[in-house]
Amino acid sequence: MSMIEIDKSVGEKLKKARESCGLTQMQVAQYLGIKRELISYFENCTRPLSLAKLTKMADLYGYSIGYFINEEEVSEEPISLSFRTANIKDEDLEIIAQVKRFANNLHFLNTLLEERGIKP
User: Fold this and answer.
1) CA–CA separation, 23 vs 58, rounded Å?
2) Which of 39, 57, 82, 103 has its Cβ near the most Cβ atoms within 10 Å?
3) Is the dihedral of CA 104, 66, 68, 56 positive or negative?
4) What is the pLDDT of residues 47-100, one digit of tens each?
5) pLDDT > 90: what percent of the chain?
6) pTM > 0.85
7) Count of H helices and E strands in the chain?
8) 105: which residues sit within 8 A by CB, 6+ positions away?
9) What distance in Å separates the CA atoms of residue 80 and residue 63, rounded to the nearest whole number?
10) Beta-ladder partners of 50
11) 7: closest CA among 47, 61, 63?
């Protein structure tokens, strides 16, 4: 599993994305199966992050991985779902991530088709 060094902009984007979803560090940590402190370390850029964990976080937050690792500012709107985070269960987070991943993939495919002049 490859590790990537994260810089300040990646950490800031991770924190902003998590907060925009209304999720706590504890909820994200439980979803990833890690300690809460690691989420803080990732957001503060004090620990490297595996590509697998970044992928899972991107799916949960509704962004592509490219949004987090591109050095230049990329304007990307996340995939949004409405749900209450107060009583959310760990298994609910997995379902939310799967739905957002599917929606991101569908959006990507539709964009490709439109670029090629094919109506979806």
Assistant:
1) 13
2) 39
3) positive
4) 888 889 999 999 999 888 888 887 655 555 665 655 566 677 777 888 888 888
5) 34
6) no
7) 6, 2
8) none
9) 10
10) 3
11) 47
